[in-house]
Amino acid sequence: xxxxxPVWAEISRSRLTAxxxxxxxxxxxxxxxxxxxxxxxxxxxxxxCAPVLAAAGAEWFGVTCVExxxxxxxxxxxxxxxxxxxxxxxxxxxxxxxxLSPQVWEPLxxxxxxxxxxxLNSPPQSVRVQLxxxxxxxxxxxxSFVQLKELLARITPDxxxxxxxxxxxxxxxxxxxxxxxxxxxxxFAAALDLIAECGIHPRWIHAGNSTTLLAQHHTPALLQLAKxxxxxxxxxxxxxxxxxxVPVTPQEASPSHAAQKLTPVLAWKTRIVSVRTIxxxxxxxxxxxxxxxxxxxxxxxxxxxxxxxxxLLSNRGHALVRGxxxxxxxxxxxxxxxxxxxxxxxxxxxxxxxxxxxQGQEKITATDLADLTGxxxxxxxxxxxxxxxxxxxx
Length: 394
Ligand SMILES: *Cc1c(COP(=O)(O)O)cnc(C)c1O
Fold this sequence. Notes:
Largest sheet: 10 strands, mixed
CATH topology of the largest domain: TIM Barrel
Shape: elongated
Structural class: alpha/beta
CATH superfamily of the largest domain: Alanine racemase
CATH architecture of the largest domain: Alpha-Beta Barrel
Distance between the termini: 24 Å
Bound molecules: pyridoxal-5'-phosphate
Low-confidence stretches: none
Radius of gyration: 24 Å
């Protein structure tokens, strides 16, 4: 059924393309970029965003898991797909069949891939992997040199596994002072030396997210590292593609004009479906947290926390109506939210309401909602529910 509930998210092709171009121009020319479209393109819809990015020049995509990768393969037959959270039992066959490039670090990953390569074909097919080094994030990746040596010892001439890339992830790329990233880079460099000593020469070396790319602070060192190993550098921007650069600290260190030109790709919209006026002393919503002090005009929008509108926005957040900001009155419900439009004239059923995006001179960003709810733009965008249809525009 075509969605009929008046709640939707508009995804701007032209903004996504423009953001990609800005990032491409801000990155060193020698570097390749992985367009990170994990978590369904940060809530924007990977199946719709990937072709737009591919048309703009993206050759590599980063997804969360094998399931996301297989879905992406259906719409993108020749892109390179980086699977960023490893793999799990029962997924290695799909890795081979769909020519995926998983990040690996556990002996289990090697077991699964070797086994699948053996059973799928004889002689065994080769499987290209990206070896992850834990340089300080303590989340994924090979932690110690002992573990690294053990894994590398498994890459014998008859092993189906080919290490085509070696990568790491920085834990605080937006903090330029103190420079923890420099220490992570040192650990990464030491791991790369050990890998080279073992006779393994990856084609790609990658580290760094949107902030690393935009701040440009560590890209010279990364480029040098890649050069030393005769490899190509890759950077992995995600959030910036969607128009949300992360501010760096100290702020004056940011040279990034590109960051200021990025524009949010997603606009979250709905319509007014009911209006009423309540009298002074009357209340609105669960637990009577909003009490009218004057005759108060209330509007109903059919969006609630089940759609990803955070309940912490109750009595704090705004939506845009007729180009003005309307306060959320009372508690955000599961499927509905009430707005106070007393100071906005001429509001009618059917009027468009903007939760994230622009209307007239006003604007609400995912960062604004994140600031009110104690989180980051990433989570606000990812939280927009699956029942909110994503509509591609321009
Ligand atoms: C999510 C992620 C990225 C992209 O990060 P952004 O901050 O969104 O640019 C890059 N690399 C890895 C390993 C990630 O998990």
